[in-house]
Specification:
The chain is an alpha+beta fold. Among the domains are: 182 residues, Methylamine Dehydrogenase, Chain H, CATH 2.130.10; 235 residues; 98 residues, no CATH class. The protein contains 8 helices and 48 strands. The C terminus is likely disordered. Keywords: Coiled coil, Repeat, WD repeat. This is Cilia and flagella associated protein 57. Pfam families: WD40.
Amino acid sequence: MAAVVAQSHHIFGLRTGVNNNLLFFDEHTVVFPCGNNCVRYDLDQACQSFIPGTERSQSMQAMAISANRRYLAVAEHKEKATITIYDLQHEQSRRRKVLTGGELPVREFVCMAFSPDSKYLIGQAGGPEWTLFYWVWEKHKIMATVKTTSTGPIHQVSFSPQDNMQICVSGNGLFKIFRYTEGALKQTNSVKMEQHNILSHAWMSKERIIAGTETGRLLVFESGDQRGSLSVTSKPSTQEPERKSEDTSSSPALLPRVTAISPYSKGFACSAGPGTVCLFEKTEEKDSYKKTREIKIPPDPCFNDPTQAEQQEISTLCISPSEETLAASTDRGQLYHITLSSVEMSRGEQAQFEFLSHSFHSGIITGLSICMRKPLIATCSLDHSVRIWNFETKQAPSKKHNISRSLIQIYSKLSLDWSPQVRSMAWSADDSRLVSCGMDGAVYEWNALSGKRESESVLKTCSYTGLTLSPDNKTIFAVGSDCTLKEIQDCQILREMASDDAAYTTIAMTHSGRALFTGTAFGTVRAIKYPLPLQKDWTEYQAHSAPITKMVVTFDDQFLLTVSEDGCLLIWKIIDKEGRALKREKEMSYAEEILITKSDLEEKNQFMLELKTRVDELKMENEYQLRLKDMNYNEKIRELTEEFIQQIESLKTENQVLKTEKEKQAVTHKEALSEVLKKHGKEQQDLESNNNQKLMLEYDKYHELQLKSQQMQESYEEKLQQLEDSKVHALEKLTQFYEAKIQEKVSALGQDETRQQLREFEETIKLTEEDGDRELQDIRIRYENKLRKEKETNNKHEDEIRVMKKKHDSLQRELKNKDLEIDKLKLEQNKLEGIIKSLEKDILVLKREVQKRDVTINDKEKNIYDLNSKNQELEKFKFVLDYKITELKKQIEPRENVIKEMKEQTQEMEGELAQFQQKNTQLELTIADLKLKLKATDKEMHKEMQRVRNVEALVRRIKTDLHNCVGFIQEPKKLKDSIRTLYERYVQQSDVVEIVGVDADIQRENSRQKEHLERNVASLKRKLSNDTNVHQAYKVKTMKENAFLIKEINDLRKELRLIRAQLHNYETQEVTASAGTVTALKFEEEAERIIQFQRVEIQRLRQDGTKKSQNYPHIYVNGLIQIIQIDFLIYKIHI
């Protein structure tokens, strides 16, 4: 047993080619195959648990989950086809049963399904037999088998959702319904489907099935017969009948394939070609279906061509138990999901899937590398993408990485002369040595600095596929095609460990040197302790479904990472036998720093400042919008309250009318109910009395007939006995009589005569016996006929008795039915009485409420009367005020003329402001262009500065190297060598040739660009100064105009105060009555409240105007105009 244990921790990927490879276990957990395992993935917590597959399983064909979501069935192929059933409610998902085809030779099961009660399982075997098996899986018993087709293939089998005995099978040119009866599966329909390749189907009800074809048609079957069809490419409102000409003429390559269908309560979801899923919902018209939405697979940025993701074919669709989530798997190993409620809400937008967890590789993973300072993994694949994974957080932190496609960028070149194909390489811990192996059976050790080969080990009979180095860099471990693990040291093979029948493909070693891990061509991982044991001792784990291509151990010996040709990345946790993590020699903490340039940081800070200013502006704008909305909403609330008050009044009247109608209906209902009860009771009594009389009469007849039959039977038996006795008595008499005669004759005659007489006598005796027998026979026949007639009459009577019994039973049943009806009517009566009582309670409650409302109405009517009286007094006072208003209006007219002139002046000023705004926008555009030019010059300047810094660094390095050369000034040979190396390091032949001609051109170009930039900067400065002068002059002008307007406002306020004083004098003179005084005071208080509100508004506008006057002078002018208008509005309100 190995000293360390590898435990499955997390896996990235999906196993394709498995029928029904995505299932919902519950609302937040899905089950899918990955590698040689089935994975239970929690969508909320993003955690996984594993269900390992069968050891050395060659392939996995299909999956199925039971209706109660408890059992999972997995079809695999090892030596023979098996179906393994797991209990998902068990913590470890323990294995319950393993089903096989029994004595029949089955190579694979292509699809399966559980019955609605989860007790039965059907499995479709593959070709050439294509046998359908029907199991009671808990008893491991095959109930029936049937051959479904001879050509194949079969794509799906399923149970009816409401019947364990009804099964549907669909495939290429095949659609059959089977029923389990009398211990066999019998076909119940006969539909010819030669022209359709049915890829999927789903039960919508007990009799209806929807089937999807290769040509984009949805066929509707009722009771096994085709009733219509739909198209996934259009939006039909009703089902149209099948048109064979369309299907035969349309090309399958151009039409979308319906590869998956999943039903739910509103309808069903189905695939509609590459990257598309359609939702169909029921319509009210003849139970037809209508396409309502399309859901697309979004582009995947991880691919070179993101649109490749949209070309994926949907393999499986499944819906969560609460019908909240729709999940899908594709033929390229991707998992997607979407919330159906969001699809319904986003009616105007194109709905798109999201990744269920991450985007996975869709091809063979060929490379694997790990970061030392961060918990990151890099993988590359034949799908032309490089992906980064975090093995601690189990996330994919970044997206697109492969941007060069077929371009190779060389950062540092070191040529190692090796012609055969290199399969694996490994670096030493200090990066000074590189070890490689290849298909020619050679293992080479290279010096990474000089590029020289230091050692080699060649074995022509083995093609090496993987190698690794020991922690001390002295030992090489290599694996290859000869199914052995080799330990190589100093160019010699020290040990070889055979792997039995499994070929090793890759190898990795822990950094502590305690264990080796090898990957096999079967996709398994083996853990071998080190030093290598003498015996074959290892632990094997089920991992992938294809050969493992690469594996690596993290630098802290906590995780083992493996990748395979199945496109999956599997993370293993390395622990000891007790389940503890391996001890680390030194603690490693991953780096949290990130690299960023100073320019990026400055841009980020500048962007943050811009966003802050934008947020402040949005806050101010939102506050203003909120105030406007509050005003609008208050007005709406007032209107709604008035409208609702009117509705309440109308509803009160309607309620009153309904109450009266209800009372009338209650009275009529009581009367009708009492009449019905009386009538029903009378009918019941009549029926009971009639039935009792009939029963008594029939019972009397039956009793009489029974007595008659007994008497007749006794009389006939007595007669027969008498006849029998008379016959015996007559025979005795005859014998005695003839015996006496014989004695007499014998004594009288001689012997001859006696003989003659005896003969005659015997003849006479025979004749008499025959006569007696004939008479007896006639008597017997006569009495038998009489007896038969009596029996017939007796049978007739018995039949009549049976009929009467049946009538009696039927009458008793009728009585029972009537009793049940009576009970039902009594229950209904009780219910109605309860309803009547509840309604009476409601009536009492409503009456109380009506009384309360009447009291409130009386109070309101009193208030209305008081208000009417006050209103009359106010009208009197209004007449007086109207006269005053007419006089004051005469004084207002000249002031209104002045206001009109000022408005015209302000409009002219607004026009000037619009012109200035246009000029400002033009200036802003020119400034933006100049800023862009300035930014470009800044970038060029930064590049030049960076180039200068690089040159300065180069000069510093040259200076240090020169300083080092000066140390050899007394040793000419070393000085010469150092100068030569210095020359080779810093001078290249191309630079020597071109440097003379290039320097002059560079200087000229540099000076020319410098002069051009200086001229541009000078012209920009001049334009900026001119713009600032114009803006300053405009600002001074607007300030003067504002001062003039403020002065006019102050004059108008003085006049307003004088008018208020005059108005107050008029009021004091005219008001004499006490009531009039009170109302005048109330009116004045209302006017003062409005004036106070308007003053607050004026103060707010002034504050806003002073804040915005510097940057927005036109807003300030508009604010002053509003203040003028508000002052005059106050004036009018006060009047």
